[in-house]
Specification:
- This protein is of the alpha+beta class.
- 22% of the residues lie in helices and 26% in strands.
- The strands form two sheets. Strands 1, 2, 3, 4, 8, 9 and 10 form a seven-stranded mixed sheet that branches.
- Strand 8 and strand 9 form a beta hairpin.
- Helix 5 crosses helix 6.
- The longest helix has 15 residues.
Length: 231
């Protein structure tokens, strides 16, 4: 008898959108080039990673009010879905330096303050992300993320992930900066441009990313009733 399939690791990824006035699309997506020594070496991917145990305890974090959920027993539902949303916010901050956070009900806008930027290396070093945000008077703005898709690695793969793809707009005034460890560069592409560069051999994409980008080309605008609702 063969070995049992590897258990998929719970993970989250963020499709971060930015409004554009490009001929080939009304919005772009943030993509990170992966370091050669980690999973998916050299590929361009959306920010994301594995859910940590601490992601389950994030005071002030909540799920989006307008999110539609699967029937009971058929998929993610609150409150069990919340750690995936917290993981997405944390991974985006770790890998790209962009923080979806809020002070009370007010979303954090504009360039990050130096004391907030200083939290990033501490999170990367393993300190509790929710606790560090709370010390800074912030909370994860998980309600800004909406569910887009779920991908589970096929059973024949030795390393498997069970990944929630969540989508949000980039906060006004924030700029992406690669962490230099897991990711070596950050770039914004319209979905059509990313696919064209992939087909031309300029960048490497993995199948879920290709499919997601193809899905995104079908949205004619960036707005509350199109890809995301972040009013």
């Amino acid at each position: 008898m063969g070995e049992s399939p590897a258990v998929p690791r719970a993970s989250s990824t963020v499709i971060l959108l930015r409004e554009e006035r490009a001929a080939d699309g009304p919005f772009s997506v943030l993509m990170l080039e992966r370091h050669g020594g980690i999973a998916f070496p050299g590929a361009h991917v959306f920010p994301g990673g594995v859910v940590d145990p601490g992601d389950a305890d994030a005071p002030g974090a909540g799920l989006p009010v307008g999110q539609q959920w699967a029937p009971a027993g058929e998929g993610d539902r609150p409150p069990d879905a919340l750690p995936y949303w917290v993981a997405a916010v944390r991974e985006l901050f770790e890998e790209a330096g962009i923080l979806l956070a809020a002070r009370g009900p007010a979303p954090l806008l504009g360039p990050l303050a130096p004391e907030v930027i200083a939290l990033r290396p501490r999170v990367l070093a393993g300190e509790s992300f929710p606790r560090l945000l709370a010390e800074a008077g912030l909370r994860p703005a998980t309600e800004q993320l909406l569910y887009f898709a779920r991908w589970i690695t096929p059973v024949e793969n030795p390393r498997r992930w069970d990944t929630r793809f969540l989508v949000a707009r980039v906060p006004v005034g924030q700029e992406a900066l690669a962490d230099g460890t897991e990711t070596v560069s950050c770039r914004w592409f319209t979905p059509r441009e990313a696919l064209a560069r992939y087909e031309g051999g300029d960048i490497v994409l993995i199948p879920p990313t290709v499919r997601t980008l193809d899905d995104l080309t079908r949205f004619p605008l960036l707005g509350a009733h199109a890809v995301v609702a972040c009013e």
